[in-house]
Amino acid sequence: MLILRALRLVLLALPFLLLPSNAIRAQDAATDIPAAIQAMGEANLRELEQIVADLAATGSDTVVPVLTALGDGNLYLEETSGAVLIERGSTYLEPLSGEAVELGADADLSKIRVNNGLRRDIAAALAGMTLMSDSPARRLTAAQGFLANPDPANIPLLDEAIAAETDANVLKAMQAARAVTILGDDEQSVADRKAAVPLVASGAGRNALTILNSALNGAPEELAPTIQSAIAGLEQERAIWGALQNVWFGLSLGSVLLLAAIGLAITFGVMGVINMAHGEMVMLGAYTTFIVQLVIRQNFPGLLDYSLLIALPCAFLVTGAIGVGIERGIIRWLYGRPLETLLATWGLSLILQQTVRSIFGPTNQMVIAPTWMSGSTEFFGLSITYGRFWIVIFAIIVFLLLLMVLNRTALGLQMRAVTQNRRMASAMGIRTPFVDAMTFGLGSGIAGLAGVALTQIDNISPNLGQNYIIDSFMVVVFGGVGNLWGTLVGALTLGVANKFLEPYAGAVLGKILILVLIILFIQRRPRGLFALKGRAVEQ
């Protein structure tokens, strides 16, 4: 029975599987498509079979909606006018143009009925048309459909399509679909099923392991070792790619920690101030982004895709100005009094949180991702989201720009001088109060940039900064106070370590373990990975 069914499908598909494209166009010209569709209304089942074959043989894309509607039971005959129509919900469409048809109250509609055999013929005809389409994308989609729904009756169709295929990617997908079908068909020989296993393992993608495990259940003794060997190889490969995926997740988390901690590193390094309100600068940067996008969405919707780029300088200037105000109004009166500074900045963080909560409410706000940051891509076995990718690139750019500021500008030279020996820098004529204010403003501005990035991966809420302040301090202490390269290495190391610990210990316990390890580490190296050098460092 299966052989007869397969033979029937091959005979139905042969007219368009074997003809070249110019022959198909000739067939299209020979077949009067509108007349053939019109004839469906009065045709019996045998005549419908011939009409389906004739329409499929044209190879024309215009007949695909008609054949699909016929197979789905959505093709109707209007008895009064004799018109054949496609049903779409409560609307009826002209089959070739797709235009809606107005029907009167007295319209007499009857469904053009088909049986299961004709449905199989229609499915085979559509599959054959798609497999032999001029578009590689359509052929690839058809092959993926055969892979997801294997049917032994489709093997002859796949054989014909494979013989004619020229695109390497489509050919691989077709071969994988054929191999999956053969592997799941108990009537195939053991030798053929063994030969199909490597093709399934290499071509079925993420579903390969599921397909092989399913085939292993009830597999003959001669076939089982081959499947088990392929499963073991895939599991080892999956473990490797899983580790690489964790490294990528760790790098993306590390880039976020870098953005959040890099401003803290320079303020803590230059001024020795423990700023507990640093997280709130991140939060204010996120809310600045929300406001900028809200204004653009209401007044300039055409610029919505550029809203994040516009928000970057706005967030930097807003948070930088607030940072300078905090330093001039609060911090400068508390130098040399670390406990009072810590309490003052902690109280300030609570005030900023409550202020934002009073203005925007306690609920989370949303920033729409631009189209160029939406979606993801596959890179070998890695799944890379565009949002995370651009955040990593952005963190690298910010880091390099900050390095350039510190090493190539007068302000950067003065900041490094104050970091290494404040008294000597003051004696050399450097205005340390001005450097302190600019340093605090620069660190707060960079925190605002971190807030812009975080709008794409975290909820915008008054508590946003609190989620990153402790991690930021861990990064700074671990990498080395005031050292940018230490902050970079510390952020990436902690990000990767967190992602490798989370599957085993959970997010909270994993963070606790990281904190314990850092405490043990600074017992041996109190100044972190990259210690600053200078005569006044020990003081």
TrEMBL record:
Topology versus the membrane: Multi-pass membrane protein
Keyword Chloroplast tagged: no
CDD domains referenced in this protein's UniProt entry, alphabetically: TM_PBP1_LivH_like
Coiled-coil ranges from the UniProt annotation: none
A Gene Ontology molecular function term of the record: transmembrane transporter activity
TM stretches of this protein: 247-274, 281-300, 306-326, 389-413, 434-453, 473-497, 504-522
Coarse class of the protein's main subcellular location: membrane
Keyword Phosphoprotein applies: no
One term under GO cellular component: plasma membrane
Any one GO BP annotation for this protein: amino acid transport
Keyword vocabulary terms for this entry: Amino-acid transport, Cell membrane, Membrane, Signal, Transmembrane, Transmembrane helix, Transport
Pfam families assigned: BPD_transp_2
InterPro entries for the chain: ABC_transp_permease (IPR001851), ABC_UrtB_bac (IPR017779), BCAA_transport_permease (IPR052157)
Signal sequence residues: 1-26
Domain of life: Bacteria
Subcellular location: Cell membrane
Family: Belongs to the binding-protein-dependent transport system permease family. LivHM subfamily.
The protein's name in its UniProt record: Urea ABC transporter permease subunit UrtB
